[in-house]
Amino acid sequence: MPLSEQKLSQGMTTGEYFDQTRVNRQPLIDIYQAIEIPEETRSFFDGLAQPLRLAVFTADWCGDAMSTTPAILRLAESTGNLGARVFNRDEELALTNSFLPESRAGTVPVFVVLDPSLGEVARFIETAGELAPAIDAMNEIITAAVAGEAPEEARASVRGKRTAYRVAHAKEWGEVILHAFGRA
């Protein structure tokens, strides 16, 4: 399913996206504000011969989206050469899935970089692979922290601790995400 100019224009701006978030609004904003764009990344995008466009398919309830989406939106806002439009993955599931292999249907977030004619230049899915050890470490730390809690309490506690951990590591993780995105 190709992405048309009309459909791309229906996507939200970064501000509109943050305004409509419900599940992790403050953590998303906190992560966005913590991100620092490395000079080499900014220079790369500022030096492009022509501006690129970015279609972002995300969901505010997703942990990977909580870390990855604000970092890449921050990059887009920092340069005039990467115009982002954001779509709620849950409302655009068929379109989102059209950018994923069948085995990854439903994955979120998905970032599609497009040239001015809407030809696909690059695709970045979920998050930086280099973050896997850090995410595993986060899960081990949190699992140990909730050991002994009742199952109902542990579930709620785990979600809150994961969110807090992602916010606390936003700057560090953002650098990894932006480096991987730049290679995509």
Order of strands across the widest beta sheet? 2-1-3-4
State the total count of DSSP E strands. 4
Largest sheet: 4 strands, mixed
Poorly predicted ranges: none
Helix content: 40-55%
Distance between the termini: 21 Å
Strand portion: 5-15%
Compressed to H and E, one letter per element, the order equals HHHHEHEHEEHHH
Quaternary organisation of the protein chains: single chain
Judging from the principal axes of the Cα atoms, what is the shape? globular
What is the C-alpha radius of gyration, as a whole number of Å?
A: 17 Å
- Main structural class: alpha+beta
Q: What does the secondary structure layout of this molecule look like, with pairings?
A:
Blueprint: H1 5-9, H2 14-20, H3 25-34, H4 39-46, E1 52-58, H5 63-78, E2 82-88, H6 93-97, E3 110-114, E4 120-125, H7 132-146, H8 151-168, H9 170-183
Parallel strand pairs: 1-2
Antiparallel strand pairs: 1-3, 3-4
Any overview of this molecule?
The chain is an alpha+beta fold and 184 residues long. Helix content is 53%, strand content 14%. It is built from nine helices and four strands. A four-stranded mixed β-sheet has the order 2-1-3-4, covered by helices on one side. Strand 1, helix 5 and strand 2 form a beta-alpha-beta unit. The protein is globular and about 55 Å long.
